[in-house]
Amino acid sequence: MEARVKINGTIISLVKGDITLEETDAIVNAANTNLAGGGGVDGAIHRAGGPAIMEECRKIGSCPTGSAVITAGGKLKARLVIHTVGPVYRDGTHGEPDLLMSAYRSSLNLALEKGLKSISFPSISTGAYGYPVEEASKIAVSTVIEFIRQNKGFNLVRFVLFSDKDLTTYRRALEKVL
Prior knowledge:
By secondary structure, the protein is α/β, with parallel strands linked by helices. The chain has helices at 40-49, 51-60, 96-113, 133-150, 164-177; strands at residues 3-7, 10-16, 26-30, 68-72, 80-84, 118-121, 156-161. A seven-stranded mixed beta sheet has the order 1-2-7-6-3-5-4, with helices on both faces. The longest helix is centred in the middle third of the chain and has 18 residues, at 96-113.
């Protein structure tokens, strides 16, 4: 059950699925600061994309929290992978919201700089990094919508959620922002 809205010429789509199967120009990887691969979305992207992605990550070296870097997509259907580092959630009072906003904004800016028309996001920081999905979804959706209202260039920004529960939470966040 996809949810979608159109803002400033860009479709924002929410789906349940596997981000490694996305055919958008780029998918976003919820990476760690060492770009070292790992569990969750990060591990799945590296497994599906093959060793070429890790080779490029090693050359780049690192990525600070709230920033983003880009590599080729390896064997993925998406041409490129934007690796961004979201914050580890402590209690929400240690700059986590600003860092999470920055992770989404940095990814979108990098995609625009590269002339990409479509991008797929996971729910950044809500797995191993422990960010509550309810709070993270509001930040994710509002940051993306604000960015799209200020910047033209994308045809599609998709959130690919892992579970029905996450999809429902993101759908509620989208309804509140609109």
